[in-house]
Amino acid sequence: MEESHYLNCKSRAQNYNPPVDLRLLDYVSIYDNNLMCAICRCPFVDPVVLSECDHVFCRDCIRQSWNSNTSYTPLGPRGDCPTCRTPAKLGPRSATSKILVNLVDELVVHCPKRDDGCKAEVRRCEVQDHVNIYCGYTVIECTDDDCTLPVRRKDAAQGCLHFGVSCLSCHKELQKWKLEAHWRSECADRRVHCDMCKSSVFYRDLEAHRKEACPAMSVSCPGKALGCTSRSKRGHAELHAKSCTFAKLAPVLLKQQERLDEQEAAQKEMSRKLEVLEGGFQNMQGILYPPGVETSQRSADNSLTPSLQERLFGSGTAESTTPTGTAAGYDWTESAVDEDAVSPAETMHTAFSSATSPRQRAAPLPPGPRPADLPEPFSSDFDIASPTGFPPPATNGGPYASPLHHLLSMHESLRDEMTRVSSALSELDGRHSMQILNENLRTREEISYLAAQTAGLQRQVHWLTSSALQRQQGRSPTPGASSSGAGGAMMDAGAGAGVEAAVGAVSTAATALRGAARMVNVGGNGSGSGTGTGMRRGTSEEGRTKL
Amino acid sequence: MTAPLPKRIIKETERLQTEPVPGISAQPHDDNARYFDVMVQGPDGSCYEGGVFSLELFLPDDYPMTPPRIRFLTRIYHPNIDRLGRICLDVLKNNWSPALQIRTILLSIQALLGAPNPEDPLNEAVAKQWKENQGEAIKTAREWTKLYAQPKQ
């Protein structure tokens, strides 16, 4: 019974303290890199030498390395040397010289229970013994006979510590034997040292301390965004900020940057809006001035009679006594920025002048009597329109910044009006031609109806005449009835004359109809629109009437 | 949590921080010490000069017995690196040796940038171009480096 209990305890004690992993140890001094295994990067643990290339590895490392990539071989573990790739194998006598083993065994390490508080520094070959036998922080079974719970070796003398207590700082419930470890590493209210400034703070405040208060923490200059790359400890940050131009300028410049960004965003939005508006405006322009219309208007304007031009210019000069007229004259002759702008009094005149002005610009001395008549009024315009004598915009009553603006706006309004008028004109034109076409059709139908009737009459008359003539010819050879025949001839002659007259009347009627038809056709052709199909139909109608 | 981080990985990470290889930096993730963000500068004198390429590196559980997994995150025109950034390099596959480390592998990758090997291609199209018209291929590689591998300001 005693024995079994002992064995039981022993096995559990083993579980509390697993064998020390030599690769996880912290070394007190810096060791030579030549003592380091190339695979685990730790000082050799049970080193072996590969006889083929003399490279040394830990036994476990080289076995593991070869096992992972080669299958089982009956001649023992073999593979390539990890360092030089020489094919090698692990023989029974691969152990290295004693000197290497001694070198790594002599290395001094910290006790693996260092985190728990053990300050022992022992040679590596003795660390397992230290943990198993001497280390006060190793966990063993409670010495109390009735208790089998674990306890640290150094506390074992104090009797059984397996009773509940509560932490004085954080009031957490725990067992007495764990209290020290709790204070050391768990309790939120324990005092810890900040790594940076070595001051003592509560563990729960450590994060905040590091972030905000720790004077040894390095912080970047407030002018970092402007390009100052200096980082200084928080304690010296003030000094730096005083000397750094970036830090001084930072608040102002950052604010400006912010505003700049805002304005840029606003500008972007505006430009997008403008784009949309421009697109819309161009669409509208495309609708108002289709490319064909402009040229036809120009060509029509070029055919304006000189008299009309003269009248227009005369009106322009007549108005030049009024301030607006003067402005117009100035614009026409001198500035040439906005030649189309004239007094808004007469829309039609404006329209014509806007069309004629380019000609004027191209040829300073236009043909016709104008050059002889007009120099006087134009020169007077020059005088009035000279910059000193220019009437102030207030006289126009408009809220415009300058006369040029006024003229421009006037020009715009006139242009609009002009387009309205031109559209109305084209509409009227269309309606008119439509009406004429309708009228034509009706008349033509009537004419064709009449023509058909006339043709019928003609045919009847022809038939009657031919039958009468046949009858006359058939009767004239009979001698017996000369008198009666003469009488009949007389009668026939009279009848024939009547028929002749009737035929003549019918043919005159037909010619008259033809003439009417031609007239209608001419009217149709002259009605402006004169579409090709209409014309063709007209001629075919004519042909039918002729037939 | 799985097994504690092997001492070797901790040591390698520390050494990468304390004695960085020129032109190479590797930074472990805060939440996963086996996952590294790597930056590799294009070697001087190569067509990747001036570029900064970012890679991801993952150390599997049985590292160092198995090679780390590495992938280019930056696009690169190279016959041994495919569109997904996978690298065709012998030491990352069959020729891995546990004696190799993160730093040596990254140096190998930097060397691969300096000496593309179109005879053992991973990206067939690039390798073809490289073999048939090397001047044009190098020009493209330079352009891609300018386009994709510019260091962040």
TrEMBL record, chain A:
Residue intervals of the RING-type domain: 37-85
Pfam families linked to this entry: zf-RING_UBOX
Biased composition (Basic and acidic residues): 538-547
Record bears the keyword Mitochondrion: no
UniProt GO MF annotations: zinc ion binding
Domain TRAF-type: 181-231
Span of zinc fingers (TRAF-type): 181-231
Gene3D superfamilies: Zinc/RING finger domain, C3HC4 (zinc finger)
Comp. bias intervals (Pro residues): 364-374
Biased composition (Low complexity): 480-489
Comp. bias (Gly residues): 523-535
Keywords tagged on the record: Metal-binding, Zinc, Zinc-finger
Name the UniProt record assigns to this protein: TRAF-type zinc finger protein
Protein source organism: Saxophila tyrrhenica
TrEMBL record, chain B:
Catalytic site: C88 (glycyl thioester intermediate)
EC assignment: 2.3.2.23
Protein name: Ubiquitin-conjugating enzyme E2 2
Pfam families tied to this protein: UQ_con
Family per record: Belongs to the ubiquitin-conjugating enzyme family.
Domain UBC core: 4-150
Gene3D superfamilies listed in its UniProt record: Ubiquitin Conjugating Enzyme
UniProt keywords, alphabetically: Acyltransferase, ATP-binding, Nucleotide-binding, Transferase, Ubl conjugation pathway
One GO MF term: ATP binding
Species of origin: Saxophila tyrrhenica
